[in-house]
């Protein structure tokens, strides 16, 4: 599927919410009629079920028994299990477009999704959207539900935040953009309080951000930011990188998955006021401890003085790609 909506429809088919023992069918048609008749008494109907029908308890047991052919795998999400059980006990609650009202968390991983389409707006209660490991390069914020609190886009191809920041979800608390293609210095301007007033957690790891000073000046406006991940960016190679961030963002609690203790904050106190220590270059030292399977060049040059024998030399070229 190329869009989130198409991937969701595929997900629904996988759950089988309209197939036995879920949904409507000959196995629960009297209960369906009872719910449509306000004067009916469901308890009496269950006491004398017509032949071929199942009680709600029996249908639920078919979903929960791991030996049942209709059971979900043990590693399925709590939401998968909840939707299946609701579809068995009260299928009218998930019938048609009502299923969109029941979904608060949507996780579509590694499905080749390229487009975050406007079909997402049907999820009026959606709080968590995880679209990791897809092929998304642009995110149109107008297509995101305003109720969203978590947006995870790790391992995609996002290279520009302009579309995402046009009308961002106002209540968003976590934004995950790790392993994408963001490049400085043009993207830092999108990471401010104006766009993300309630952001608590931000993951920008393994992109191509280079301007630490500009990034910090923008992130410092995020009054609620407590968790920040920047490792894997070129700016993380700067010698004073961690100390400068710790001192510049006093409300930060965790940086690159490492807790910031008061002792560390005291150690780097005052570093934020010395931007001249931030250099635009970094040095990388690579040491090779041992190489196996290659002839030793020195072993072939130990000849006696005055010898006229041929001299065999070996040389090797090692290339590093960053």
UniProtKB/TrEMBL annotation:
<protein>
    <submittedName>
        <fullName>LRC43 protein</fullName>
    </submittedName>
</protein>
<keyword id="KW-0433">Leucine-rich repeat</keyword>
<dbReference type="GO" id="GO:0005737">
    <property type="term" value="C:cytoplasm"/>
</dbReference>
<dbReference type="InterPro" id="IPR001611">
    <property type="entry name" value="Leu-rich_rpt"/>
</dbReference>
<keyword id="KW-0677">Repeat</keyword>
<dbReference type="InterPro" id="IPR032675">
    <property type="entry name" value="LRR_dom_sf"/>
</dbReference>
């Amino acid at each position: 599927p190329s869009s989130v909506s198409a991937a969701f429809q595929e997900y629904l088919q996988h759950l089988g919410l309209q197939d036995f023992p879920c949904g409507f069918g000959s196995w629960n048609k009297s209960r369906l009629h009872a719910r449509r008749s306000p004067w009916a008494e469901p308890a009496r109907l269950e006491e004398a079920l017509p032949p071929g029908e199942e009680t709600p308890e029996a249908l639920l047991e078919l979903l929960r028994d791991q030996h049942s052919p209709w059971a979900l795998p043990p590693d399925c999400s709590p939401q998968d299990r909840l939707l299946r059980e609701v579809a068995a006990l009260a299928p009218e609650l998930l019938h048609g477009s009502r299923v969109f009202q029941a979904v608060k968390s949507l996780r579509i991983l590694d499905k080749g999704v390229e487009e975050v389409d406007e079909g997402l707006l049907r999820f009026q209660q959606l709080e968590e959207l995880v679209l990791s490991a897809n092929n998304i390069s642009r995110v149109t914020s107008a297509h995101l539900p305003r109720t969203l609190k978590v947006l995870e886009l790790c391992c995609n191809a996002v290279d520009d935040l302009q579309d995402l920041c046009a009308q961002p979800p106002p209540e968003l608390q976590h934004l995950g953009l790790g392993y994408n293609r963001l490049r400085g210095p043009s993207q830092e301007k999108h990471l401010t309080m104006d766009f993300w007033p309630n952001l608590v957690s931000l993951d920008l790891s393994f992109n191509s951000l280079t301007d630490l000073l500009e990034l910090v000046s923008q992130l410092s406006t995020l009054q609620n930011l407590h968790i920040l991940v920047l490792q894997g960016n070129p700016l993380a190679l700067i010698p004073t990188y961690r100390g400068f961030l710790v001192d510049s963002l006093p409300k930060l609690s965790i940086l690159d998955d490492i807790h910031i203790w008061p002792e560390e904050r005291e150690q780097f106190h005052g570093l934020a006021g010395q931007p001249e220590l931030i250099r635009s270059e970094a040095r990388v030292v690579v040491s090779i401890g041992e190489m196996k399977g290659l002839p030793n060049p020195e072993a072939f040059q130990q000849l006696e003085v005055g010898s006229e024998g041929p001299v065999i030399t070996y040389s090797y070229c090692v290339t590093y790609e960053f």
